[in-house]
Write a structure and sequence with these properties.
This protein is an alpha/beta fold. It has a domain of 211 residues: Aldolase class I (TIM Barrel), CATH 3.20.20. 49% of the residues lie in helices and 11% in strands. The chain is built from 12 helices and 8 strands. The chain has an 8-stranded parallel beta sheet. Strand 3, helix 3 and strand 4 form a beta-alpha-beta unit. Helix 1 packs parallel to helix 2, helix 9 runs antiparallel to helix 10 and helix 10 packs antiparallel against helix 12. The longest helix is centred in the C-terminal third of the chain and has 17 residues. The chain is globular, with a radius of gyration of 18 Å. The two termini are 32 Å apart.
């Protein structure tokens, strides 16, 4: 079972838009050093839809190399693409590299029927022996998983699902149906929001974007939760929710880079058309003040 606090880690580019593997590796190790339990590679935060198959494969390889120095960390390669052929190629490359699991959002942009979505996941399952996780993100994929869809995916042999909307009726029904029927299927939260109540329900892993720029707070939260320290975990959960709300003023990839710059790190560049505000923007100082206050509240050093 995958457990703990994973990150949909950003991919870092240079000023010309080229893949900056050196800085991307640095960021992976920086998060591992601060307690992050695993990486969700080339998803939305990681700019996967903006990258070629070869570039995404290079990020998978970089993650495998970094993780060699951090035993026990989990690597999930997000392989979802607009087409099946690219998705399959990425899944097979990820298996050769040696990641732990595959994640895939349904093929996006075009509107697909459920039977085509199911065939998409069947094609992935036939292409790899790695555990495959579906990724429910209707905002980007234009497809919403239903309980019945999940049942069909379970029958096909999927290992689990990452869910980002966290609609309580859907998530709780999938979780308890799986538990009562003793199915081998894991539900992973696709965001840190909801971590505490869903942990009490029995969910044991999340993929939280805040790990990109404040992993120390996320690590404290998860460790307090796992240790059964209810008072501390509730206090840190509210702090996490407050900081997350403040940082949701633009795209999450941009926010993650701005958070790193506000902390004094050179976080490189996003890939165009994404663009960072000028580094002399007062927004960076405002973020710095939010982080200083948040870290002080958590009893941590920024």
């Amino acid at each position: 079972m995958i457990t703990g606090s994973l990150v949909p880690n950003i991919t870092i580019f240079d000023a010309d838009g080229g893949l900056d593997l050196e800085k991307t590796r640095w960021h992976m190790a920086w998060m591992f050093d601060r307690g992050v339990d695993g990486l969700f590679l080339t998803g939305s935060y990681g700019s996967g839809p903006l990258m070629t198959v070869e570039e995404r494969t290079a990020v998978f390889q970089a993650a495998r190399e970094v993780a060699q120095d951090y035993p026990g960390r989990t690597l999930i390669a997000h392989v979802g693409s607009i087409d099946t052929a690219s998705t399959v190629a990425l899944a097979q490359a990820a298996e050769r590299i040696g990641v732990d699991a595959i994640g895939a959002v349904p093929p996006f942009y075009y509107k697909h029927s459920e039977d085509l979505i199911l065939q998409f996941y069947q094609d992935i399952l036939q292409a790899t022996s790695l555990p495959v996780f579906a990724y429910n993100n209707p905002e980007t994929s234009r497809f919403s998983f239903t309980v019945n869809t999940v049942r069909k995916l379970q029958a096909m042999g999927l290992a689990g699902m990452k869910d980002s909307p966290l609609e309580v009726g859907f998530v709780s029904r999938v979780f308890y149906e799986t538990k009562v029927a003793k199915k081998d299927f894991q539900l992973i939260l696709g965001t840190s929001k909801g971590w505490l109540p869903y942990y009490y329900m029995g969910v044991r892993a999340m993929i939280g974007g805040m790990n990109n720029w404040a992993p120390e707070i996320m690590t404290e939260l998860v460790q307090a939760t796992q240790a059964g320290d209810q008072e501390k975990s509730e206090r840190l959960y509210l702090l996490m929710m407050d900081l997350s709300a403040k940082m949701h003023f633009t795209d999450s990839t941009i926010v993650s880079m701005m958070g790193l710059y506000a902390r004094g790190y050179d976080a490189g560049f996003p890939r165009k058309p994404m663009q960072l505000p000028p580094l002399d923007s007062p927004k960076y100082q405002e973020i710095r003040q939010w982080l200083e206050a948040g870290f002080a509240e958590a009893g941590l050093s920024l």
